[in-house]
Amino acid sequence: MARLLTCSLLAICALTACGPGPAPDDGGTPPADGGPGGDAAMDDAGPVDAGMRMRTTAAGPTGATCPDGSAVTYDSFAQGFFGSYCVRCHASTLSGGARNGAPPDVNLDSHAAITPAIAARIDRVAAAGPTRINIFMPISGAAPTDAERDRLGEWIACGTP
Questions:
Q1: Other C-beta atoms within 10 Å of 84: how many?
Q2: Segment holding 123, helix H or strand E
């Protein structure tokens, strides 16, 4: 009986060692600045290498830049982006539980609401740039493509025209 128990324990240990190992640290704890974060919002095991860019739910600046001659504007891009992916939670007409946890001071249903501070928060959670693709937002529902996230990063880097 003791031999059977020992063999069983060895087999379990051997099989456990073949697992994927610990998940990488993806910054699941909330940032010190009170911005987005938290383990409840994690929908993956952490950062994923998307070519040379990190695809991550951990908030961080994208490093996006504004290219010369950029034509991306609120009217030509951002209004539709926010309408498709953000205002289901981040609308000034929503309150309480209808906001699904969105902070009451972050409303994305008008161009005037996108202050430089809000734009910086959006960059850290939903935009993309040369080194990272932030996929923290949206937490649920339809999600933007990486190309849309790149345009969002460009729009923010250009000063949210």
A1: 15
A2: helix 116-126
